[in-house]
Specification:
The protein is an alpha/beta fold and 201 residues long. The chain has a single domain, classed as 3-Layer(aba) Sandwich (Rossmann fold), CATH 3.40.50. 47% of the residues lie in helices and 21% in strands. The protein is built from 7 helices and 7 strands, in the order E-H-E-H-E-H-E-H-H-H-E-H-E-E. Strands 3-2-4-5-1-6-7 form a 7-stranded mixed β-sheet, sandwiched between helices. It starts with a strand and ends with a strand.
């Protein structure tokens, strides 16, 4: 029976490094890291959420080649990235034989689904549809045959509620999405300042 773990924390908290450490502690075999690097949304309206997403996009594209390298703890790891939600699912399907698999950037993966639907529906409907579409992530993982599966996502929403409805429902949806990840995983790890602050099983 393989181990399933969720690593969650704020931006630059050391989540990826901790994910590698957990894999090293449970498996001596090679680790495959699949990272979702977002692409800028193609929207006609420029809300503050759009600008925030563009900042994320620019940061992740500029550090895509160094982010994983800087956090690498296993020199034998394989690192692959995808910019498209569907392509990311295909990437997962082709790496289910890995003994240790890390899925990083799952918060960005769900955010891409939300933004896609935000161009078609009101925010209160877009986040619900994105949550339904997000369930596709778990379908291929039922066929995972390795020893360790680690999911990495980002916590958000600890500040004041935003005024724009698109941002409020984005934050609400992200919280529910992280709950979905937590329900799928047997163990959850909270990371702050590069340390594991609390553990839930």
């Amino acid at each position: 029976m393989h181990k399933t773990m969720l690593v969650i924390g704020s931006a630059y908290s050391g989540k990826t490094s901790i994910a590698h450490s957990l894999c090293s502690a449970t498996s001596e075999l090679d680790t495959t890291l699949l990272y979702f690097a977002p692409q800028a949304p193609n929207t006609s309206t420029q809300t503050s959420l759009d600008w925030h997403w563009r900042d994320i996009t620019e940061n992740d594209r500029s550090r895509e080649g160094t982010l994983i390298q800087g956090n690498r703890t296993n020199p034998m790891s394989q690192e692959l990235s995808s910019h498209d939600p569907d392509s990311f699912l295909n990437l997962i399907s082709h790496n289910l034989s890995s003994q240790a698999l890390i899925l990083d950037g799952l918060n960005l993966w769900w955010a891409q689904l939300y933004l896609k639907n935000l161009g078609k529906y009101a925010p209160e409907h877009a986040y619900r549809i994105a949550l339904e579409e997000g369930q596709r992530l778990f379908d291929p993982l039922s066929a995972f045959k390795g020893q360790t599966l680690v999911m990495v996502s980002q916590e958000m929403g600890l500040g004041m509620p935003p005024r724009a409805s698109s941002e409020r429902f984005f934050r609400q949806g992200m919280g529910l999405w992280n709950q979905c990840l937590g329900q799928f995983c047997a163990e959850s790890y909270w990371v702050i300042a590069g340390k594991i602050a609390s553990i839930a099983k």
